[in-house]
Amino acid sequence: MGERGIIALVMQTADNSLTLSLRPRLGRLVMTSEQGHGEPNPSHLPQAHAAAAAIAARMQEEGGVSAEARGSWPGCSASR
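Predicted structure:
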């Protein structure tokens, strides 16, 4: 499945940030994130999903492959 994936990076105009840190968990360091400064981070960007859906439709149209626009988290699909 990994060889058939496409990553689309979409920028937004909101003035916000994430703060990343390393924290110990079960004897290992893990990277965590939390809200940084500025506006709250959105959990869904409609314009980004529309762009991903357009890319998926074009792939299916041109290449005849089954394509689906999905979010960055497992289980996040087009039906939002």
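Summary: Helices lie at 46-63.
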